[in-house]
Amino acid sequence: MLVTLQRIVETVNKSPDFNLALKAMVSQVREALETDSCSVFLADDESQQFVMAASDGLSTHKNEPLRVDFGEGIISLAAQREEPLNIADASQHPANKKITQTNESEYRGLLAAPIIHRRRVLGIIVVHQSQARSFTREEEAFVVTLAAQLSVVIAHASAKGLLANENSPWIHSLQGLPGSPGVAIGDAFVARPEVSLKEVSPQRTDRPQHEVRKFRQAVARTRADLKKLSERMLGQVPDDTLAIFDVYQGMLDAASLGNAVESMINEGWRAQTALKHVVEQFVDQFEALDDSYLRERATDVRDIGQRVLMHLQQRQRKPRQFPTDGILIAEEVTASMLAELPQDDIAGIISLNGSNNSHAAIMARSMGIPAVLGIDDIELHFFTEKKLIVDGYTGEIYINPPPQVREQYRHLAEEEEELKLIVAEHAHLPAETQDGQRVSLHLNLGLDVKQPHLANLNIDGIGLYRSEIPFMMRDQLPTEDEQVEMYKEVLDHFPDKPVVMRTLDVGGDKPLPYLPLKEDNPFLGWRGIRLTLDHPEIFLVQVRAMLRASIGRTNLRILLPMVTSISEVEEASRLIKQAYFEVAEEQGCAVGVNLIQPQLGVMIEVPAIIYQLSALANKVDFFSVGSNDLTQYLLAVDRNNRRVAHLYDAYHPAVLASLDDIARRCEELGKPVSVCGELAGDPGGALLLVAMGYRQLSMNSYNIDRVRWILRNVRSATLQVMLAKALQARHPEQIRKMIANKMESMGLGGFVRAGK
Questions:
Q1: Which residues form a coiled coil (predicted)?
Q2: Catalytic residue at 359?
Q3: Residue 126 and residue 104: Cα distance in Å, rounded?
Q4: Annotation marks residue 38 as catalytic
Q5: Strand extents, DSSP E, 473-542
Q6: What is the pTM of this model?
Q7: Full set of structural domains in the chain with CATH
Q8: Active-site entry in 38, 589, 666, 676
Q9: Which of 172, 311, 359, 652 is labelled catalytic?
């Protein structure tokens, strides 16, 4: 039976046509079980019916697809109970419904097994026999196993639109992740890279100096390309977004990719081979990260590597005509790819890979281009010559939509533009509710800060500066002097505003190339404060650099990540004081005058620390909630694991209850507390956090003015009503629906869906 089962599954997987695959499958199952009929019914959620997709043995008189309403017949009973039904004589079963237009009356024995994917019933496999007998346990196990394996195939086929045909009432859509809000209608433009690092095969050289020269020439040409792209985007995107190209340039520096590539060339490898090896090492390193923002830097490194490779291979870009109102689609849409295309013609973006932290998503938001990312199991060629609608709010993509749907979205797009203008007009105003409750809006930073736009952004400070990126983009630890310059740059850009610098947050899930380690479960391993306390020489150098950078300034705050115990805070505090007095003595600073001892804070991201806030209160100056990791640890979900990522939800009642408890405890203790995770920049999340009592929210630059406008249009009493309902809810979807309905009633629906 196992060999037969494997053969059937292989037939389905290899078939070029899904409907033919189903027809072949039912025939093979009928033959394998020596039964009289095998059929597959698929769920049509729109019409609330099960539709017969293929059958061998069950025929219809009118030659039309057989449909069974949800809730009727044994088929629906198997779906409702989500378990197989093995019935000796179906004609006598109370749930049986006679279907007159078929030959079903010829059969007695029935076995129905639901096809379930991620808790959703996609269809039913039904096996009939004329004899009135129950199927054997082996036969039942065979069909149930086949249904489980078929579920993935059907889910993928549904995503690709293979279940629809010209007679189908379904409007075909794909579901991805919202990357940039807005709606777009246009023709698909599929983009593919000119070269691929994957295609480079390892080759040796006996002329390393020649290869080094070729590599340096390719890097120089890549730098020139990036400079042109940056100049082309000047004035079309804000300066903070334009700084992405400075980051690209930084990746080409000797301290980043350059030295590592040349070192490998000198070991006797060709430039292309060395480039492939080094870039893939960096990519693997970034893709293994827990922090979604840092993880997306893998795309940037790969993009830079392939640009250098193109010049090494002396390839020329082949210009293609981009359609007016085109939808750009690629495996990984990159910032440089966007810059190469005519800006006025890009209506929307679809990136099969990536998240809302990718540089493509950041650029899309700054350019006001709707984007959807992270489309599972769809190949690029599927989009060729398709008319598309991109909904950047819901993450939906409509394929060849009917005229009435296109007209509806055209109207929504016009309303979108009106709302953007309204938000921009109020960007200079303070963030406060209608009854005067002020909220401090802070910025999350992680890369180059040479961004004049940031100095003019109406923010109250930097809520989180990720200090680990310079460590990760090098082949050795940055020196103390190098770190001093980096931190000075950040502090000087915001001289009158607090800058919260998180100490080095690396480890098992964020490995440094020069400090390799492998762990079975890096998220629960040697990372954050655990690693730096085990390496005080690294911690002390970083803290000394921060303190030296703060001489003559008063805006430095230091934040400790991944804290689990009081002893960790005590030891870190001791080292910080040691560094403080060392720097004061070495630099000739007057203690407390031109060298201020910075405020010390702790990240609340490990649930254990929630129960130690009282003991910590007299040891730190402030708390900062890392809602992303806190959610992950509370729910025991690795959000990078596709099998369980759907369980990660910041609106989970347990997460909201914990956040509410933290806010109340911090108020009782008289300690400031902020939130610097993704929830702070989410419109609904920001409202709930303010209702809980959080008065400092830190987010990316795109969400600052949106959250400001929302807060200026609500009253504190309304927020308290929303919070009470959210804390009473049992499911995340109940909370989302409540928020959406409330925002609609307040005229703020345009922040949670398309339109105004």
A1: none
A2: yes
A3: 11
A4: no
A5: 499-502
A6: 0.64
A7: 2-165 (3.30.450.40), 174-190+318-400 (3.50.30.10), 197-312 (1.10.274.10), 467-604 (3.20.20.60), 614-756 (3.20.20.60)
A8: 676
A9: 359
